Amino acid sequence: MSRLEKLKQDMLDAVNSICESYRLEQDGSVTEVAKEVYEYPIYKVSRHSKQIVKFTGLTKGETLVSGTSSNSVGYKSSLFAEHTDKDTWLELPYDKDTGFYDMQIVACRDGFYDREMHRIYDFDVGTEYDIIEPAKHPSEFMLEQQRLAIERFIDENM
Q: What's the pTM?
């Protein structure tokens, strides 16, 4: 077989393979679907209930802020809507170094006055103060500030 005939045959085989793959896809015979790989955790906020979920899998996660959902803080489920559903979720910025997500209520120390206080973690300005830990028992005022920040975030990203 000459080089030209071999090249022709290789091209025909490639076309036949593509056509067969397409036919199998259309028939629904293809069982292996390419899956996207995600780096977890992923933090999302619900467009509807303002619930913040820390996803550890496509539908698996933990409620961090309940918003108006019936899920309380700490609720774990593997039945959340997929975090890829753009009609349900907006992605929250997440600081891999500190482990905090945007709008998280944190206890921090103001370096200038050396006093402790609670603040909402701002992903963009996280270095203004020294963060100690997530706030364990935030005040009603801080919870209201967080709720307002989440509403603004959702409104800006709709």
A: 0.70
